[in-house]
Amino acid sequence: MTGHPREKLHGDLPSASSKAASADRKELAAIAFERTRMPMVVTDARKSDQPIVLGNKAFLELTEYAAEEVLGRNCRFLQGPATSPIAVAAIRAAIADEREISVEILNYKRSGAQFWNRLHLSPIHGDDGRIQYFFGSQIDMTEYRRIEALEASEHRLLMEVDHRSKNVLAIVDSIVRLSNADDPALYAAAIQHRVQALARAHTLLAARGWTSISLEELIRQQVTPFAATRAIFSGPDIRMPAPVVQPLALVLHELAVNAAHHGALAAAQGRLSISWKPRPSGAGFNIRWQEVGAPTPPKLAKRGFGTVIVGAMVEKQLKGRLEKTWSDEGLLIDIEVPSACSSSV
């Protein structure tokens, strides 16, 4: 930390401490950082590529690396062939926006062994408000995931399938059929993130008692994790019935992932604008998805599986229409959802 004045950075005050402990809090914090069983690192946000400047013993034990192999490197050395690019895109967006994020990502130890990492990143700002460091903590979720999978399997056998299952299972069936990856872990990750998008929509429906859902609320739920401060939302209050929510949630998720990985949000100056309005007939609604600064794809580019899924959800599930247009400014997508699937208020 040479060259960075110490007085510009002050740690958070303990939530509970005696006067004696408060006097020694800096030394106690250093001891706790090193002795805790939770892996932790600190990266320097003022230097290019976010190099690691601190790492505790638990982090070295988890990753199997030595201290000299870790210091000065970006944490991406823990990524590997089956690491989800969606999770990586979410992490990059959080770092760019200087905000906290918690995400599960498949990482690799020095030996090549995989482990599921529940990563939490938190920015550290100086007294002048400028970003100085990022604090990262990790939890090895590998064994928990294995047990959770076993419990989930038993639970699924005991669950009573209700009348809403057919629609949801039809969407999941589309996800499984249309998702693709040469690596089994990447294939699993692609399905997992899409099912998680459905789960978030399901949680929203449950919280609203399976009644009408705000279109804006659903759009923000699915898009904000990837766009954060670089997205503009605008439109009137439009309510949707429950059957529309999950198919549309998957459409929005796919568009957001594509924008973060290949489109405008992958570019430093890229921007995303999403607007919506009732259809001219007064029944149903239209969504306009506009990416400014998105790289133009090759003219003979093959349709990605995300594009296939979006088309299937809009045309088959929502009985709607989708039109995609490229211009010098970027990408424009118009989505039309008919009256049979929505109601406006």
Topology:
Blueprint lengths: L18 H5 L1 H11 L4 E5 L7 E4 L1 H7 L3 H4 L14 H13 L3 E8 L5 E12 L5 E10 L1 H17 L6 H14 L5 H24 L5 E2 H13 L3 E4 L3 E3 L1 H20 L9 E8 L6 E8 L12 H13 L3 E6 L3 E8 L5 E2 L1
Parallel strand pairs: 7-9
Antiparallel strand pairs: 1-2, 1-5, 3-4, 4-5, 6-8, 8-13, 9-10, 10-12, 11-12
Helix pairs in contact: 7-8, 7-11, 8-10, 9-10, 10-11
How would you explain this protein's 3D organization?
This protein is of the alpha+beta class. It has two domains: 6-142, PAS domain (Beta-Lactamase, 2-Layer Sandwich), CATH 3.30.450.20; 163-344, Histidine kinase-like ATPase, C-terminal domain (Heat Shock Protein 90, 2-Layer Sandwich). Helices cover 41% and strands 23% of the residues. It is built from eleven helices and 13 strands. It has a five-stranded antiparallel β-sheet with strand order 2-1-5-4-3. It is globular, with a radius of gyration of 23 Å. The termini are far apart. The relative contact order is 0.09.
Mean pLDDT: 83
Q: Write the CATH architecture name of the largest domain.
A: 2-Layer Sandwich
CATH level 1 class label of the largest domain: Alpha Beta
Order of helices and strands: HHEEHHHEEEHHHEHEEHEEHEEE
Q: How many domain regions?
A: 2
The span between the termini is 57 Å
- Can you identify the CATH superfamily of the largest domain? Histidine kinase-like ATPase, C-terminal domain
CATH topology of the largest domain: Heat Shock Protein 90
Keywords: ATP-binding, Chromophore, Flavoprotein, FMN, Kinase, Nucleotide-binding, Phosphoprotein, Photoreceptor protein, Receptor, Repeat, Sensory transduction, Transferase, Virulence
Catalytic activity: ATP + protein L-histidine = ADP + protein N-phospho-L-histidine
Pfam families: HWE_HK (PF07536), PAS_9 (PF13426)
EC number: 2.7.13.3
